[in-house]
Amino acid sequence: MELFVKSIAVAPMLNWTDRHFRYLAHLLAPSTVLYTEMITTGALLHGDAERFLAHDPSEDPLVLQLGGSDPHALAQCARMAQDQTYQAVNLNVGCPSDRVQSGQFGACLLLKPDLVADGVRAMREAVTLPITVKTRIGVDKGDQRAQVYPY
After folding, report:
1. Domain annotation covers residue 12
2. What is the pLDDT of residues 102-138, one digit of tens each?
């Protein structure tokens, strides 16, 4: 986990943390840890994995952020990340998008901690890369903190 010690990290942002942005970020701050946009396990396993995983060594250190909930698929994708020289894998358990949650990943996984644990365990057993989890406080407006901090 030395990768994350005394580091600045730029969070994954859909439609923003693409290869061009990551290149610019590293020009401005070479030691910044960057994340890919969230890439679903389905896109990697059934789509154009080469396109989704493509990156240049100048982007390193680079973390692949995965969206998914099936432990076996997460493990397969973590192996792909390791094969493509990513420095870590991050599981998205924070995206509140209805579209993401309808796919059974993102913030809705906060309601399924055992499934998250199974996914993290499967990835840790599959690779030697650090595995991290992006999360958020609460799942919906019914969360107690959302009532206290309504912004």
Report:
1. yes
2. 677 787 888 889 999 999 999 999 999 999 998 877 6
- Is 149 a member of any domain? no
Examine the residue annotation and report whether 77 is marked as an active-site residue of this protein: no
Domain coverage including residue 34: 2-136
CATH for 9: 3.20.20.70
- Whether 146 maps to a domain, the answer reads no
Taking Cα atoms as reference points, which of 77, 93, 90, 36 lies closest to residue 59?
36
SS (H, E, C) 98-114: HHHHHCCCHHHHHHCHH
pTM value is 0.84
Q: Which of 34, 38, 89, 95 is catalytic?
A: 95
Q: Give the pLDDT of residue 149.
A: 40
Ramachandran assignment for 62, one of left (phi > 0), alpha (psi -120 to 50 degrees), beta (any other) = beta
Amino acid present at 89: V
Cα 124-120-71 angle, rounded to 5 deg: 100
Number of domains in the chain: 1
